[in-house]
Write a structure and sequence with these properties.
Blueprint: E1 4-8, H1 13-24, E2 28-33, E3 44-48, H2 54-68, E4 73-76, H3 92-120, E5 124-129, H4 133-136, H5 142-162, E6 166-173, H6 189-192, H7 203-214, E7 225-228
Parallel strand pairs: 1-2, 1-4, 2-3, 4-5, 5-6, 6-7
Helix pairs in contact: 1-7, 2-3, 3-5
Length: 235
């Protein structure tokens, strides 16, 4: 029986790579984004919603229940890095925006869809996208780092809450070649020089890690934070 999986922030970057990976592995994927998504893949359905608005998420929940009758997996990927975002220059507006999307938005998704998975799936699994910045701290993206650290805490809290009915894990990417990291400029050497594997990661490499944690190959793993960063946090 195919698994039904909801992926947030699915239009581009890691979210798109995850959606494509899961569809190729036989999942039925519901791609959620605040922007319109078009796809000709019959294993993919796109929905437009804003994770900062609970009413939007409840509509998505109703759609999933009416269309599929259940939800088996959730990938909480949606996130932002508003510029400026450093300790000395971040604005109050960007503080509020980052917390609302990255932390509160992820919490809303975990609460609404985590409960749906627990109620309707026999083998549920959730993967949250945090960041290596949430582990080591990043003064040039201070609130982003704080929200990603918060997602690590949410991962562990929901793993305990949902128990053996739904596994909850997280992937912590390092610097990945996505539209979200374009704001870093054309020369990422200041970051890659600190990695053991001296290159920028690919969205597909994160998608592989996400798919592993969702799959039956990881049935004894929950509450775990899998770092996929080329060894960045070791140097």
């Amino acid at each position: 029986m195919e698994k039904i999986c909801l992926v947030t922030g699915a239009k581009k970057g890691i979210g798109l790579a995850v959606s494509q990976k899961l569809a190729s592995e036989g999942y039925q994927v519901v791609m959620l984004d605040q922007e319109t998504i078009t796809s000709n893949n019959d294993k993919v359905v796109a929905v437009k919603a804003d994770i900062t608005k609970e009413k939007d998420l409840l509509k998505v929940k109703d759609f999933i229940v009416k269309t599929y009758g259940r939800l088996d997996c959730l990938v909480c990927n949606a996130g932002i890095i508003p510029i400026p975002c450093g300790i000395d220059d971040i604005t109050d507006e960007n503080i509020d925006k980052t917390i609302d999307v990255n932390l509160k938005g992820t919490f809303r998704c975990l609460r609404i869809f985590g409960n749906l998975i627990k109620e309707t799936s026999k083998n549920g699994s959730i993967v949250n996208l945090t960041s290596v910045d949430g582990i080591i701290g990043e003064p040039f993206a201070v609130i982003y780092s704080a929200t990603k650290a918060g997602i690590i805490s949410l991962t562990k809290s929901f793993a305990r809450k949902l128990g053996d009915k739904v596994r909850v894990n997280a992937v912590a990417p390092g610097l990945i070649d996505t539209p979200l990291t374009e704001s870093l400029g054309n020369d990422p050497s200041w970051t890659t020089d600190f990695s053991i594997i001296k290159r920028v990661g690919k969205p597909e490499e994160i998608a592989d890690a996400v798919e592993f944690l969702l799959s039956d190959k990881a049935t004894f793993i929950t509450g775990h934070i899998l770092t996929v960063d080329g060894g960045f946090n070791l140097k």
